[in-house]
Amino acid sequence: MMSTVISRWFHKIIVGVVLYGFSYGAIALEWPQEVQTKLGILVVYQPQPESLNGNVLQSRAAMSFEVKDQTDPVFGAFWFSARIDTTDDVTTVRNIQVTEVRWPSSTEEDQQTFTDTVSEALATTSFEISMERLSASLETAEQEKRSLDNIKNDAPEIIFSSTLSVLLSYDGEPQFREIENSPYERILNTPFAVARDTQSKKLYLSSGTYWYVAENPMGPWQVTLYPPEDLVSMVNTEEDEPAKSTANAPHIITSDVPTELISTDGSPNWQSLIDGKLLYVSNTETAWIRETTSGDMYLLLSGRWFKSKKQAGPWAFVRGDKLPESFKDIPPESDIGGLRVSVAGTDEANQAMLDAQIPQTAAIKRDEAKLEVEYDGEPEFEAVTGTSVSYAVNTSTQVLLINKVYYAVDNGVWFTSASAKGPWIVADDIPNEEIAKIPASSPVYNTTYVQVYDSTPEVVYVGYTPGYMWSYPYYGVPIYGTGWYYPPYWGRYYYPRPPTWGLHVGYNPWTGWNVGVSWSNGFYRAGVVWGGGYGYHRPYRCCGGYYGGGYRRPVVINTGNINIGNSISVGNRTKVSNRINSTNINGNRIGKQNNLYNRPATRDRLASPAVANKNLKKATYNKNRSNDVFADKHGNVARDNQGKWENRSDGKWNTAPATRDLSKPANINKPSNINKPSNISKPSTLPSTRPSTLPSSRPSNMPATMPSSRPSNMNNSINRSRPSGGFDHQSLNRSRQARQSGMAREGRGRVHR
């Protein structure tokens, strides 16, 4: 009976937000790809990235040149700098600037001709690669893996309940505002529907299914079947089905400080795992584990682990890379297999870190992108400590004042104005060095993860990484929120700031971040709109209109569970997939519904592909070619022949040397016609005061003057020297493993010639 009621309630009014995640059916984009040149067909094999800084990719790739009137193709390797654009599950590689070429088996007189032809052809060509393959390939790149400083990891108040319960959370002391044309006033600073009768002073709380009554905002709350009819008409929708019995109504626990609630359906039911090395509680939504050797208990909250010997605490933070080794042995198919993404060093955690490197990008039309900023009275600004930046406090828009110029971020796009009230235009240049100094203790910290890449007279190319959505790589695992408490603004309106605690935020490797309220997301009445024109509370318009991941409107959601509440934060992939599919809700990669640029409200800003990538021709795929050719980091061309390496020499494939040959490679060329763009400076380095996330993605400095045509790219390695060395089995093995991993993530098997 209990499970039936939970299921019905959950399916009726479930609300939550998936911030970013992985799709179950990724797009498979095939390699190698072909480019037509004036001398013949250039075949480019899947790139092998070396670094990604913002949207600037540094990579190498193997190639073969099928020159007209020549019987055998000429194989080579080239290094390049390019920009990437991300749409759905596809990454477009464009503005390719060849920086170095090696032709191991071409004649000396042909080398420069081939090099110049390749450089010219690739400059006007774009390639497409799946996000799976790109992120897997980055696994072999030498990335600087520093974690954020100034992140707070103090444990919130942690409450345990052995009765199915919901946390009613207030953002500080409850604040009441009149509901116009009614005898009620509402509490503004909570995501729940809480109203008070101004005459009787009784308070009412609703989930749409159950109603509760109390004498005090802090409770105790008693379930009732007889709420005031006029209040019900304001809150309930046509889809709401009022409960006919109070027998299965969850208990209400109230808090006005940062709190997380651990609720179980009865006494904790401990289950053994890994031959008794670990125990876990099966009748809860929360990851609750005991390591049997030490007796320590662990909780996972907003991506952070906390441990204690007893429930009463104290609870101490434990980094994801400092957990007991037995955590890495949690079977992926087990009931808590999804937790592996929060254990540093697991495949799931590594993949999450790699995906955090890839920005979501868009080409924004200058003439279509509009912004209006509404303030509660005259604009009020507060200084960001330790910087020359100030931010507006009495608006739901993130508005910054820097050097007497105003900048605003809206859904991943920077705007600028000479006045705090506008008019606003799309910014094609922002003061990156000042913005990068904003610390995690500031509520506008997430704007440091929004970038302006380049521009033309028609469009501005922008992007953001998950930090804009308050998700950060931290010592090898994803965490949610900065841990800082940001006081809200009180005035005519209530402007909440993004919280870390109280939303029961959880992450799994397949759908990403999701929001709940400790037991059932079904109770989560986000952004209640009071009927009859009674007004509404206004959320912080950061990150697509979500208050820290969920205070505004019900946008995505359904989820699965271990046993109760249908949480997908702790289950395994099969269970999560089945529950998501059974409710017709798909997992979402960062490029789909959860890509801010693709939401209906902002889609009109996007430039068409014809405008965004004009003058570029797309490379094609020939199904008769195998994606089995690689370039090692020294420029040697190798073929994977049934798991054995062959190298290209003397115009044919030969068995590769069994050991690494340390002879210096020859025949390294640079395009004769390549020039560094004069109006684009080298990407700026990250200020020492703020370590980057994975990767060090501080935006580059923008041109002082806007070019009349689209800049080719930013290239900081045109004159770099290739390291000396011979056939490198180690780097080739890593590249092969990454390519296979990317294909596996697309749901495909390995294919040999």
Automatic annotation (TrEMBL):
Residues 683-724 have a biased composition (Low complexity). Coiled coil: none annotated. It comes from the Bacteria. Residues 583-603, 618-753 are annotated as: Disordered. Residues 630-651 have a biased composition (Basic and acidic residues). Residues 583-597, 669-682, 730-740 have a biased composition (Polar residues). Transmembrane segments: none annotated. This is Carbohydrate-binding family V/XII.
